[in-house]
From TrEMBL:
Major enzyme class: oxidoreductase
Protein species of origin: Salpingoeca rosetta (strain ATCC 50818 / BSB-021)
InterPro entries registered for this protein in UniProt: Ald_DH/histidinol_DH, Ald_DH_C, Ald_DH_CS_CYS, Ald_DH_CS_GLU, Ald_DH_N, Aldehyde_DH_dom, Aldehyde_DH_Superfamily, Succ_semiAld_DH
Alphabetic keyword roster: Mitochondrion, NAD, Oxidoreductase
Active site: E244
Self-association and partners: Homotetramer.
SUPFAM superfamilies (UniProt xref): ALDH-like
CC annotations in GO: mitochondrion
Name of this protein: Succinate-semialdehyde dehydrogenase
Gene3D superfamilies noted in UniProt: Aldehyde Dehydrogenase, Chain A, domain 1, Aldehyde Dehydrogenase, Chain A, domain 2
Source domain of life: Eukaryota
Length: 481
């Protein structure tokens, strides 16, 4: 089940490239439809034994896996930087973050409790059991090639499901390395198989995972457009799904905010992973009274961000994932200028060439521009000015996306009101980083359905079974005194 990685091209393989240098890194098997079906069959067979392991046994295996991930942090981070491009320090941070989910669900495995309900008759007992849904599959993106897998697989395996992993064609090496450590920990390969597939083959593999009735659950992280396609396919056999889709996160700075803290939060939220995250701040809204101060300070901090290969010391901004990503952010900047926006920093390809782009600050962005309406997925801070609280809530909610929102304020009444009115699944108040294994991660509206992480994440892989036990009329009789 564990695909071999080749140093030279082989029949039915595809090439993995380094986005910093465009050099070939490896050649990975390009799975066929027949191979995908075989993996599903083997995963279903493995489910019959994995589900019957005790919760303690599954917990111990997950903890061994987490320990191995921790002990191999530097190796995994190096693989990630090679194929994804993020700075090495960020890659180490992702390994730590991703491992935290495995540790978390190792503990949750032994705390998945059912219920006993008050019966309607004295001779009856009502029970609610939690049982694994069956074979699960996940399709994961390239921007977090380890954490997006562990966040799903940790929950699935803890619940007693098997999990088929389909990583992005851009970043399969991290997934394979991570899975190898799971096998070393004692998790059977058929319990956590990895399917690698090229961009051309991935739609076929994804369709099979979404439509094959032997797969009981599909979890997807990626674009809204692809998510909608998978939802339509999964609907044919009423497959259980979790969808973590695109975002268009507002980052609001009120006039009573701590401006220095807001600038620090903006840098952390917007420019992590070169702006290539679904929870990146996408639209900055700054109240008119502090607009100039915020822009001056943000510009100064943006211009300090070093751009370069992720392995070089001090680099904060690595490459975008590929040439298409560079073309996309270039298009967005040009369109924003066409609508009257001003470029205060960056706005162009970096002299390093290739997939490198300057961290960029765009002022006076209009609601009509594509930069305002689309998910940027690049190192561009797009800033607009606002005046009243009512206006900003309306503008922040004026999108089909609803993943995460951020705002900065020191007024407690404003904080409560704004947090309640924002139509988002997650809200960061006076912080630019919200992700943690202990809290539910997910969005509303077209940003998806379901939650990952926390105790709610494991529930996505469990079915509730109601059992009514009738013990006969004699059991319910009482003795007359």
């Amino acid at each position: 089940m564990h695909p071999t990685v080749f140093s030279e091209p082989q029949p039915h393989t595809f090439t993995v490239f380094n986005p910093s240098t465009q050099e070939s890194l490896a050649h990975v098997p390009d799975s066929s439809l027949e191979q995908t079906r075989n993996i599903i069959d083997r995963s279903l067979h493995a489910f019959s034994s994995w589900r019957h392991k005790t919760a303690r046994e599954r917990s111990q295996l997950l903890r061994k896996w987490a320990d191995l991930l921790t002990h191999n942090t530097d190796y995994l981070a190096g693989v990630m930087t090679l194929e994804q491009g993020k700075p090495l320090a960020e890659a180490r941070g992702e390994v730590t973050y991703g491992t935290s989910f495995v540790y978390w669900f190792a503990e949750e495995a032994i705390r998945s409790y059912g219920d006993v309900h008050p019966p309607m008759a004295p001779n009856q007992r009502i029970m609610v059991w939690k049982q694994p849904v069956g074979v699960a599959a996940c399709i994961t993106p390239w921007n977090f090639p380890l954490a997006m897998i562990t966040r799903k697989a940790g929950a699935a395996l803890a619940a007693g499901c098997t999990m088929i992993v389909k990583p992005s064609a851009e970043t399969p090496l991290t997934a394979l390395a991570m899975a190898e450590l799971a096998y070393q920990a004692g998790i059977p390969e058929d319990v956590l198989p990895v399917i690698t597939a090229s961009h051309e083959t991935s739609p076929t593999v994804g369709k099979e995972l979404a439509t094959n009735p032997k797969v009981s659950k599909l979890s997807f992280t990626g674009s809204t457009a692809v998510g909608k396609q998978l939802l339509g396919l999964a609907a044919n056999n009423v497959k259980r799904v979790s969808m973590e889709l695109g975002g268009n996160a507002p980052f609001i700075v009120f006039d009573d905010a701590d401006i220095d803290a807001a600038v620090s939060g903006a840098i952390a939220s917007k420019f992590r992973n070169a702006g290539q995250t679904c929870v990146c701040a996408n639209r900055f809204f700054v109240q008119s009274g502090v607009y100039d101060e915020f822009m001056t300070k943000l510009k100064r901090e943006i211009e300090k961000l070093p751009v370069g290969d992720g392995f070089k010391d001090g680099v904060a901004i690595g490459p975008l994932i590929n040439e298409a990503a560079v073309r996309n952010v270039t298009r967005l900047v040009i369109d924003a200028q066409r609508h009257g926006a001003r470029i205060l920093a960056g706005g162009m390809k970096h002299p390093l060439g290739g997939n490198f782009f300057y961290p960029t600050l765009v002022a006076d962005v209009k609601a009509q521009s594509q930069l305002f309406c689309e998910e940027i997925f690049g190192p561009i801070a797009a800033v607009s000015k606002f005046t009243s609280d009512d206006d900003i809530v309306r503008m922040a909610n004026s999108t089909h996306a609803g993943l995460v929102a951020y705002f900065y304020s020191q007024d407690l009444r404003r904080i409560w009101k704004t947090a309640e009115l924002l139509e988002y699944g997650m809200v960061g108040v006076n912080t630019g980083i919200i992700s943690t294994e202990v809290a539910p991660f997910g969005g509303v509206k077209e940003s998806g359905m379901g939650r990952e992480g926390s105790r709610y994440g494991m529930a996505e892989y469990e079915e509730l079974k109601y059992v009514l036990l009738d013990m006969g009329k004699q059991f319910g009789e009482t003795t007359q005194q």
